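Give me structure tokens for this 229-residue protein.
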Amino acid sequence: MKTKLVVLTGAGISAESGLKTFRDSDGLWEGHDVYKVASPDGWNKDPQLVLDFYNLRRKDVKAAQPNAAHIALAELQEQFDVQIITQNIDDLHERAGSKKVLHLHGEILKMRSVLDENWNYPIEGDIRMGDIAEDGGQMRPDIVWFGEAVPKIVEASDLVMQADIFAVIGTSLVVYPAAGLLNYVAAKVPVYVIDKRLPEVSPRARLHLIEKPATEGVIDFRQALAAFK
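Here you go.
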């Protein structure tokens, strides 16, 4: 049995592939009230604006490429049982070769019915008003918006509890419930936190902080993991 490595990733890992985030000063959501493009209320008020916004995001994702951090995590599958839990809606982990990827906040390359989240479909192009699911509902991005439940958080919590090693890469740890996953890590498990601006993390045994961008920090992380082979 391989050692189980569970990795929580956030916007910081994809930022190095050119996908900006609304939390950056020059982020892609600048100029947009986040609740107008990423909330049920925003959708109800102006669904066309929301569709236009995510149609552009989909184009950005398709144009982006996995970076060295994505690739390094995929390569770790040779030595470890690697489970990625990502807050990101892009598919860069998958394109890098990671086999086990859980998307907490949905996927930009999927769409779903407004009536039932279980009616979801792959989407490569644009979603338009009038695109109807089999249940009669208008299609919307298969994204978890602000104010919506995160249905996969229970599955993610279970995975974290099984970790032999846990890592956090490229996330500010301010968006809940994802940030609360750290609370499910067993006390004996080593935890690595990698980010160019380290988030606040409660002190604990076997905590390792690496204040570097994801592509650089993962190099240090892989060296540290050599002790677990």
